[in-house]
Amino acid sequence: IRTGGLTITAAPTITTLTPNNRGAGSSGQTITVAGTGFAAGATSVFSGTLVTVTASTITATSITLTVTVATAAAAGLRSLTVTNLDGGTRTLANAFTVNAAPTVTSLSPASLARGAAATTITVNGTNFTTGMTVAFAGTGLTLGAVTFVSATQVRLTVAVASTATVGLRGITVTRTDAGRFSSTTIGLTIT
User: 79-105 burial, b for 16+ CB within 10 Å, e for fewer?
Assistant: First the structure.
């Protein structure tokens, strides 16, 4: 709106975020903000700490964010504030949820010998979900599909090549919301 040489711009509006949740430990996640009145150079900030926006692509009706949720980010609801360069701002309360990161506490069995045939390994921890993946560091391991048992347990088969390097293989678990846990001190020991 232009009034006698003064241009008044409406503040942006925010209607939705897609997806509206990500797990702690996720990085480089694409989040699309739908709304109106977004302008080039607008900034987007989540409430709280440890949820950062590293890049954005802006049109008048959407902002595509690249978001990282630190492993230490507290689980819970976050608001999103979009501010245009002219100072127009809008906050959507409770727009985004940080899901608690998965953790791994133990494996059973915790070791396999070189040349071991496919053996079922149980991974114990917290915040597990259907569709999560499990990976071990290094080569010489053949992993089967991950079977979700409960929020505290998944199972998979692991076969070990006869030439596999001995020692501890760190574990990484990743949920479908990109929440992840990675450790170099917890994992599968090859003997």
Answer: ebbbbbeeebebebeebbbbbebbbbe
Q: Dump pLDDT digits (tens) for 13-62.
A: 999 999 999 999 999 999 999 999 999 999 999 999 999 998 899 999 99
Name residues whose C-beta falls within 8 Å of residue 170's C-beta, 6 or more positions apart in sequence.
136, 137, 182, 183, 184, 185, 186, 187
Check: CB of residue 97 under 8 Å from CB of residue 21: yes
**pTM for this one?**
0.84
Rounded alpha-carbon distances, angstroms, from residue 24 to 9, 49, 64, 158: 36, 12, 20, 27
Instruction: Average the pLDDT over each of 6-15, 99-108, 134-143, 170-179 and give the range with the smallest value.
Output: 6-15
For 142, phi and psi rounded to 5 degrees? -115, 120
| CA torsion angle 23 28 30 31 (round to 10) | 50
Q: Which long-range contacts (CB under 8 A, 24 or more apart) does 159-163 make?
A: 159/116, 159/117, 159/118, 159/119, 160/112, 160/113, 160/114, 160/115, 160/116, 160/190, 161/114, 161/115, 162/114, 162/115, 163/114
Task: Characterise 177 by phi-psi region: left (phi > 0), alpha (psi -120 to 50), beta (else).
Answer: alpha
Condensed to tens digits (0 to 9), the pLDDT of residues 106-145 reads 999 999 999 999 999 999 999 999 999 999 999 999 999 9
